Design the sequence.
C-alpha cells in the first residue's frame, strides 16, 4: 500500500482527533470497548485506507496521531503483528469480506496474529517451504511445520504460507491464508532464547483446516502477497517499531480485553514524548547508558571506546535522518528504493556494535546476567551497576536482528538485484517445478 496524504491538512486531522478523544476517552471503559471505538473510527491504523478502517494518511501523520493519543493520556492502539503486518497486507490484497472481518478484528484488538512463514528447511530461502495445503471441498487441509513464530503462543490467527501446487516452480505454487490458531491440528511449542525469554515458537500443523474464503490474494499467488508482508516488516523493523504509548497485547489469549483501559494509559503529565522511542531515540537511550557506565569506570578515557561511542551515535543519527527522508518522500507520494532493506541492515549493525562496545566497557562484569527480576537485583547489588543487565541482555539478543525479518545476506541480495540491477544468481530454479528440485538428504 502506498502512503496517501489525506486532503485534510495534518493540523485538521490532529484537531479532529483531539475533539474525538475529548468526546470518547473514558478510562473506565474496558480495553475491548476502547479499542472498538478507536479502531472503528480509524485511529488505530490511520495509514490504512478509509475502506479498511483507516484514515489514508501518510506514516509521518500516523506518528503524530499516536503521539497525540499518548499526550492526551489515552490508551494507545493494539500492539502486535496483526496491526503491523496482517492488516496492511489484507488491505492491499484481500477481498471486501476479508477486510470487513479480519482487518476490523485487528484494528479493534479482538484478534491477535502471528506470522507462519519460516520453516526448519526454509528460512533464508523462504520460497523453498514444504508445508502443504491441499484442497478439500471449500476448505484446505494443512500439514507442515513452522518455526521462529513470534507471538504464536498468544495468537488467534496466523499469516500462513503453504504450498498449494508442488508441480509449479517454487515461487509460483504458494498461497497465503489467514488460519485459525484455535483448532486441534495446531500445536504451538515455545523456543527459549539465550536471553531466557520465549517470544519465538515452533508450530506444528497436522490436518489443520482453513476455509477457502480465508485464501488471501488468490490461489498460488501467495509469493506476491508474502512480499507485501515482508516489505511492511522490513520497514517496521528498520524504523525501530511503534510510537504508541500505553498499549497492551491484543486478542483472546492475551487476557487484556476485559481489563480497565485506564490502567494501560500513560499519565497525561508524562505522556508527551514518553511514547516508545524510534530507532534513533532507542539507540540514543542505550548510547546514554554506555556513556554513563564509561564515565563511571574510566573507560571514557579509552581511545577505542570513545571512537566506537562516536560510531554508535553516528549510526543512530543516520537512522534518524534516513527515517525523515522516507517520511518526506512518502508525503510526496514517492518512495526510496531499497531503504527498508538498508534500514534493516543498519539496525542489525547498530545492535551488534552496541553488543561489542557494551561488553568492552563493562569488562568482566559482562559475564554476569540476571534472567529474572530477583537475579537482576542480585547482580545490580553485587556490581553496583543498575544498568548492567541492559548491556548483557543486548549482548545475548544481538544475534537475532541479523536473522529475523530476512537475514542480512537476503537484504544485500535484494538491494543488489532489485535496486542496483545486478544479475541474479545463476540457475533455473525459478522455472523448474518444485517437486523436481534437488532436496537436502
Sequence:
Amino acid at each position: 500500500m502506498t502512503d496517501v496524504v489525506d486532503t485534510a491538512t495534518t493540523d485538521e486531522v490532529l484537531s479532529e482527533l483531539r475533539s474525538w478523544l475529548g468526546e470518547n476517552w473514558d478510562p473506565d471503559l474496558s480495553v475491548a470497548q476502547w479499542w472498538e471505538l478507536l479502531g472503528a473510527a480509524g485511529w488505530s491504523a490511520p495509514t490504512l485506507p478509509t475502506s479498511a478502517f483507516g484514515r489514508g494518511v501518510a506514516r509521518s501523520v500516523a506518528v503524530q496521531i499516536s503521539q497525540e493519543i499518548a499526550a492526551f493520556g489515552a490508551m494507545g492502539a493494539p500492539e502486535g503483528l496483526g496491526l503491523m503486518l496482517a492488516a496492511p497486507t489484507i488491505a492491499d490484497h484481500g477481498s471486501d469480506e476479508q477486510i470487513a472481518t479480519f482487518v476490523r478484528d485487528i484494528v479493534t484488538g479482538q484478534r491477535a496474529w502471528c506470522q507462519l512463514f519460516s520453516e526448519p528447511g526454509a528460512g533464508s530461502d523462504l520460497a523453498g517451504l514444504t508445508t502443504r495445503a491441499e484442497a478439500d471441498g471449500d476448505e484446505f487441509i494443512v500439514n507442515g511445520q513452522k518455526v521462529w513464530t513470534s507471538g504464536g503462543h498468544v495468537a488467534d490467527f496466523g499469516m500462513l504460507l503453504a504450498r498449494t501446487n508442488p508441480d509449479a516452480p517454487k515461487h509460483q505454487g504458494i498461497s497465503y491464508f489467514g488460519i485459525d490458531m484455535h483448532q486441534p491440528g495446531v500445536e504451538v511449542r515455545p523456543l527459549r532464547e539465550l536471553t531466557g525469554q520465549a517470544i519465538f515458537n515452533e508450530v506444528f500443523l497436522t490436518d489443520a483446516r482453513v476455509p477457502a474464503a480465508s485464501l488471501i490474494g488468490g490461489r498460488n499467488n501467495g509469493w506476491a502477497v508474502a512480499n507485501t508482508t515482508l516489505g511492511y516488516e522490513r520497514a517496521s523493523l528498520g524504523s525501530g517499531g511503534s510510537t504508541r504509548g500505553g498499549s497492551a497485547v491484543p486478542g483472546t489469549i492475551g487476557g487484556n480485553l476485559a481489563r480497565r483501559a485506564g490502567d494501560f494509559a500513560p499519565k497525561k503529565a508524562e505522556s508527551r514524548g514518553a511514547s516508545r522511542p524510534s530507532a534513533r531515540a532507542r539507540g540514543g537511550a542505550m548510547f546514554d547508558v554506555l556513556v554513563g557506565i564509561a564515565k563511571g569506570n574510566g573507560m571514557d578515557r579509552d581511545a577505542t571506546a570513545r571512537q566506537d561511542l562516536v560510531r554508535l551515535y553516528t549510526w543512530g543519527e543516520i537512522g534518524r535522518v534516513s527515517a525523515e527522508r522516507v517520511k518526506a518522500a512518502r508525503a510526496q507520494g514517492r518512495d526510496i528504493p531499497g531503504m527498508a532493506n538498508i534500514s534493516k541492515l543498519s539496525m542489525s549493525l547498530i545492535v551488534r556494535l552496541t553488543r561489542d562496545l557494551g561488553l568492552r566497557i563493562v569488562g568482566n562484569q559482562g559475564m554476569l546476567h540476571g534472567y529474572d527480576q530477583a537475579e537482576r537485583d542480585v547482580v545490580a547489588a553485587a556490581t553496583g551497576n543498575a544498568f548492567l543487565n541492559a548491556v548483557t541482555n543486548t549482548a545475548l539478543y544481538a544475534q537475532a536482528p541479523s536473522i529475523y525479518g530476512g537475514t542480512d545476506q537476503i537484504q544485500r541480495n535484494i538491494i543488489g538485484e532489485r535496486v542496483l540491477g545486478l544479475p541474479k544468481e545463476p540457475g533455473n530454479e525459478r522455472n523448474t517445478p518444485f517437486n523436481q528440485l534437488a532436496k537436502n538428504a
The longest helix spans residues 303-331. The radius of gyration is 23 Å.
